[in-house]
Amino acid sequence: MFILKRQDVEITSIQHPKKDQPIPILHYQGQTFRLISVFNAAQEEDAKSFWRDLTDNRGKACVLLEEPDRYSVWGKVRLEQLTAEGAEAPVEAGEAASTFVQAALLLLQAVYIDIEDLLGARQVNTFQKEITAVFQHWRFPQATSPDAVNQLLTVDPLGFTQVPLWQEHHLNTLLQELHRLGKEHFGNANFTQRVMDALQDMPAKDRNQFLTWLNQAPAGKLWH
After folding, report:
1. What is the pTM of this model?
2. Mean pLDDT, residues 160-185
3. Which domains does the chain have, with CATH numbers?
4. Which position among 10, 30, 38, 110 has the lowest Cβ density within 10 Å, counted as fewest Cβ atoms?
């Protein structure tokens, strides 16, 4: 498909038919696309590689949007698929499984605990402010207030009665930003293996499904 600039397209949102959250929609030449994944400005090659994999290897109709502070990949979708009552989004552009969200939160909490244990209260307070800014900048549902973020950092996600309703692009963004912050605080990426051990708390089936997804995700290579 195409690589587009922000001035080439119109971006709106529609309400999810089942849940209290908006769905971002990109309009280009009479076609509509739904957000799949977001990359920061330094990840141009990762974004293009992910986009090419979807279009060339998986036969998906996708566009890559270039903006000053980010790149995003969008998959073609018919609006009636999204607005029809009870309709589910296409798998490649859909809501992340609740177990994947729980796994990402386990990794988040493991980084948080490691920073607190190894680097102290001052560093962990800085990290909490930084990750709150990430949630706010990328508009994560149910994660923009300080109280909500504190809950995500401290309450066992496997016991959540209501797992946050995040899209797969939210998980990719969280894992990319979490890796960046961890590397800044620890000075290297050696923390990843230690943090990944937190996934042992999950049932084996859920853990293996998440790891399979992670291996194919744009952020996956950061956590190997």
Report:
1. 0.67
2. 88
3. 2-93 (3.30.200), 98-223 (no CATH)
4. 30
